[in-house]
Amino acid sequence: MPSLGLLLEHPIFDTYNAKVAGINEKVQPSDVEYRPPIDFSLHQESITQFKQKYIYDNMRGIEDRDGL
To answer: Of 37, 47, 36, 46, which is closest to residue 10 (Cα–Cα)?
Structure first.
């Protein structure tokens, strides 16, 4: 598989989020031990814009330039 088209689209952190949920039950968000869960849906709009500008447009340019 050519590396040009490989993209980690939606990483899942369920195990991490479950672990920090247990830790976070005992602490407050202001505590140094507090760990926020990882949730990419909070940043979906900026992720989509980034992918279009820096990944998809670049891939298309390389495909057009190199005839892939």
So the answer is: 47
Q: Give dist(CA 28, CA 16) in Å, integer.
A: 18
Record the pTM. 0.62
List, for residues 29-47, the tens digit of each pLDDT value: 999 999 999 998 999 999 9
CA 56, CA 37: separation in Å to the nearest integer?
A: 28
- CA angle, corner 5, sides to 52 and 15, nearest 5? 85
Residues 7-26: b if buried by 16+ CB within 10 A, e if exposed: eeeeeeeeeeeeebeeebee
Report the alpha-carbon distance of residue 1 to residue 59 in Å, rounded. Answer: 15
What average pLDDT does the chain have? 89
